[in-house]
Specification:
The chain is an alpha+beta fold and 415 residues long. Helices cover 55% and strands 15% of the residues. The protein is built from 15 helices and eight strands.
Length: 415
């Protein structure tokens, strides 16, 4: 793929993207076998590569205070994401937590959790999903926290928690009030070394363990100031996390999709591909076209969502549609590449089999496709009912106005 970036990006972002691409090609891709191997050797390899990334100034590209805009970071994120292991090596896995802590943590929490996270001395995790709850319905969460002698006492279970196997702390979503949901949930930072915190079991994703675990909070006590933002403000913070997090993850998925596109085209024009006359086959050309279209379309959607994020505009529709588009693009391109490689693509002889499993998981992670599609469809219909048309440049703004009008009408009926 062409490594040059659009001219509207900040100069340092273009240079950083090129340097990240070179690092991935030189240092990460040749060692993916180690990173996917036995845990001890994989962790040692990861630590070595992460230290080298910090040494070369490639660590935490979108941490608070670095690149000025999310739109500029997208080009860097795509290069970080060319390997399944890239985001972790470059510290990008912590970007979302770094922004949430920078925006909403008090001084004590910043000193205890944010500072070591930015240095690479701590690993963060986020605990929302629960074994007995519905992931897309926060009202079903059962983990509870109550104040006892100026400490939060937490009881509950969380599962499929990314990086739980090595996390230094977990931001736990817990119910702190039994009233209406809007003021009932809070985010509380819990050190994994706290008494009562335990990993109940490790959970695989399509047959591979990738650091996700079920955790138990059995009377865990943390200081009152360990709450993120204000107690009761957890629902709004959850929505804020999802809005940024989906864009960050989707950009990394597009990096993987671009790598699969490279693999696909490389096989078609290779000596073996020439022997099979792959480039002359219309179905092969169709796969190339559809793969390119899917990637280019998802990139445009992500850039639109990022611009609105940078402008402080509600981008829920744009971000959700971009997340689904990136997930679909990765799945389509990985599948096409495997189809062209044949049995080799299904084996460990190529990176495609691992990427394919990752691609399938993206349809579940950060909100299932079904839930996002249903929610966006409902909002778009609400806009159309209210306005009789749809502004494709600003659908979320129109949706907000429609929601406000609908709410006002309901209040008028009630009065």
């Amino acid at each position: 793929m062409n490594q040059s970036q659009p001219s509207h990006l900040e100069p340092d972002a273009r240079d950083l993207a090129r340097r990240v691409r070179a690092f991935v090609e030189t240092h990460i891709l040749p060692r993916e076998g180690e990173l996917a191997g036995p845990r001890a050797s994989a962790q040692a390899c990861h630590a070595e590569l992460a230290a080298l990334a910090r040494q070369e100034g490639l660590w935490g590209a979108f941490y608070p205070g670095r690149l000025a805009s999310l739109e500029a970071y997208l080009a860097v994120a795509e290069q970080e994401g060319r390997s399944e292991y890239g985001p972790a090596v470059f510290g990008a896995d912590a970007t979302l937590d770094a922004h949430m802590l920078a925006r909403h943590a008090g001084p004590d929490v910043r000193a205890t959790f944010l500072a070591p996270l930015l240095r690479g001395d701590a690993v963060s995790a986020y605990g929302m999903s629960e074994p007995q709850s519905i992931g897309s319905i926060p009202a079903t969460l059962t983990t509870r926290a109550r104040l006892v002698d100026e400490q939060w006492r937490l009881e509950g279970r969380k599962w499929f928690i990314c990086r739980a196997d090595r996390a230094s702390f977990v931001t736990v979503v817990a119910r702190t009030d039994e009233g209406p949901l809007e003021g009932a949930l809070s985010m509380i930072l819990v050190p994994t070394a706290a008494h009562g915190f335990a990993i109940a079991r490790e959970l695989d994703i399509l047959g591979r363990f990738q650091g996700q675990c079920e955790i138990v909070l059995d009377g865990v006590r943390v200081p009152r100031h360990n709450v993120l933002g204000q107690a009761g403000g957890g629902l709004a913070l959850m929505q804020e996390r999802l809005g940024l997090g989906r864009i960050l993850r989707a950009a990394h998925w597009l990096g993987l999709a671009q790598r699969c596109f490279d693999q696909l085209c490389a096989r078609v024009v290779s000596a073996r591909g020439e022997q099979a006359r792959l480039a002359d086959k219309q179905l092969v050309r169709l796969r190339i076209f559809e793969a390119y279209q899917a990637i280019a379309g998802a990139r445009g959607l992500l850039q639109d969502a990022a611009r609105k994020f940078d402008a402080g505009v509600d981008n829920a529709i744009e971000g959700n549609v971009a997340k689904v588009a990136a997930s679909r693009a990765l799945s389509l391109v990985a599948d096409s590449a495997i189809q062209i490689y044949g049995a080799e693509g299904l084996s460990e002889l190529s990176p495609l089999s691992g990427i394919y499993r990752t691609a399938r998981a993206t349809h579940i992670l950060d909100g299932t496709d079904d839930a996002l599609i249903s929610a966006v469809g409902r909002r778009l219909l609400d806009v159309y009912r209210s306005a009789g048309t749809l502004d494709f440049d600003w659908p979320t703004l129109a949706a907000t106005r429609a929601d406000t009008a609908h709410s006002g009408a309901k209040q008028g009926e009630a009065s």
